[in-house]
Specification:
The protein is an alpha/beta fold. The protein is built from seven helices and ten strands.
């Protein structure tokens, strides 16, 4: 019976994959996954004991003009698998519906699929550093780092709790905003829950693309 499922692999630690996700991966005939320089998804899958023969990597070159064309091709590949009477999976780091590569493929899919959620890296950093992301009636915003000072300042200063993904893209801007407004409570971590996990004390020290900043403001 054909079936296509999207599985969130969590922030990096294989043990943070949900039981439902693990069972789906073990039962799959084919597993598509994003191929990156860090091989994050692949490393998680292999650590879970998934047969390498099932794995089908898909590349997503950052900033490539051909990304849309590539994703259209991936959509066709997944669709072909769906109609070939196999159980296929797209396994992606973190949470599939939050800043994941699967979102680039969705426009090119016209098939039924199921999503098994994963733990996002923002949940990973909050657990690792014991950060309360929001409490009671406090709002929480999630934004990608954008190299635009006015935008970043307006967003950060508009809310008590902010999670910034891929912070390296605007690290100098974030640093300047923190200094200008005297923000004391901020937390920085890269490669959450992996062997490469690193905590930073200063924004300017960020070197890794997969870095998250959590800013807490008390107004």
């Amino acid at each position: 019976m054909s079936r296509f499922t999207v599985v969130g692999l969590g922030p990096g630690d294989p043990e943070l994959v949900t039981m439902k996700g693990y069972k789906t991966l073990k039962d799959a005939d084919i597993i598509f996954y994003p191929k990156t320089s860090l091989n994050s998804a692949e490393n998680i899958l292999l650590a879970l004991g998934i047969d390498r023969k099932k794995l089908r990597p898909m590349e997503f070159p950052i900033g490539s003009e051909k990304l849309k064309e590539l994703c259209a091709g991936y959509g066709n590949t997944i669709t072909e698998a769906y109609y070939s009477n196999v159980k296929s999976v797209y396994a992606v780091e973190g949470e599939p519906m939050l800043y994941s590569t699967f979102l680039d493929i969705i426009p090119f899919l016209d098939i039924e699929y199921t999503i098994i959620p994963g733990i996002s890296s923002m949940n990973g950093i909050s657990a690792a550093m014991k950060i309360i992301l929001a409490t009671k009636d406090e709002p929480l915003q999630i934004i990608p780092a954008i190299n635009d000072y006015r935008y970043m300042e307006n967003r950060i200063m508009s809310m008590q709790n902010t999670v910034i993904f891929k912070a390296i893209r605007a690290k100098d801007i974030i640093k300047d905003i923190i200094i200008k407004h005297g923000i004391k409570d901020y937390f920085i971590m890269s490669y959450v829950s992996t062997d490469q996990e690193r905590i930073y004390n200063n924004i300017e020290d960020i070197r890794d693309y997969m870095t998250i900043v959590v800013i807490k403001r008390y107004t």
